[in-house]
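Hi U.,

Before I forget, here's the chain from the pilot set. I'm dumping it here mostly so it's searchable later in email.
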Amino acid sequence: MLRQTVDIAFGLYTAEGAAVNASNLAPVSMSLVAAPSHPLSRLPNVTKDDLAQYTQVCLTFDQGDKLVSEALFSTNYLGLTMFEVIRDAVINGTGWALLPYPLVKEALASHSLCALNHDLLLESHYYRYVEGESLGVVATALLTNVIRFLGTTR
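Structure:
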């Protein structure tokens, strides 16, 4: 606390070229999802052209002096800064999104979200961590639990 440092930080690494010295924990599969009421959820198979017709809700991050969005196939997107907020916007019918499977697993099971049927190649992203100068007992226990959780949710 006195040094104003963080013992450990976790996050999903999606940004190409982000200058962060982090260690990979595990790949996390990504799911293409929309609300059950969204027109894409009614299609038997979704293509890139289909996705381009509707709003993508995507991750946006600060890169120096500009905001960068990870929109896939369209200039029609809504950029948000947290995956949880993106998920909630998609559940509310705002658009479709590419989200980490562990984050949407329960919403898919409860039918709040639908996995879109597609033949697109979706890469896994890595869940990563950055550690401070040395890990204390609590940070080490947290890291162990995160590793265990990731091993059960892939």
